[in-house]
Amino acid sequence: QVQLVESGGGLVQAGGSLRLSCAASGRTFSINALGWFRQAPGKQRELVAAITSGGSTNYADSVKGRFTISRDNAKNTVYLQMNSLEPEDTAVYLCAAKRSSIATYGYWGQGTQVTVSS
To answer: What distance in Å separates the CA atoms of residue 74 and residue 100, rounded to the nearest whole number?
Structure first.
């Protein structure tokens, strides 16, 4: 099993920045990729950014150039640096992990709220 705990959410004004952290514990050696998802009220959950064990990254078009995902393998932690935040970025942000490139994300954190005021 893998446990994920997010932190770093909060309230920020438009144009501001936040950094989210997700600490993984348990069978972390089995993790192939980590991702950040978000879910806003009335909207589907969407993948914001992901990073593989090899460091490859991908981003949703809506956050390219503004968000950066990174990981510290020694600390079993993945980060999401969010800059130039917009009110549309308001959502619960969830960290997730999967065991292989073809697997679905099977491990989830509890989520952290990000609210961007205009």
So the answer is: 20
